[in-house]
Amino acid sequence: MRPPWGAASHVGGRRKINEDSYLAQSPIFVVADGMGGHQRGEVASAIAAREFATLSHFMALEPQQVDACFERAATTMRAMLPSGVGGTTVCGVAIVLQDGAAYWLVFNLGDSRAYHLDTAGKLTQISVDHSVVQELIDAGVLTAQEAHAHAERHVITRALETLTAPEPDYWLLPIAQGDQILLCSDGLTNELSDEELGDIWRSTTNPQQVADNLVQAANNAGGRDNITVVVVTSDAAPITASLGFEVTRSGPPPHPPLPPQTRSE
Question: Gene3D superfamilies annotated for this entry (predicted)?
Answer without folding.
Answer: PPM-type phosphatase domain
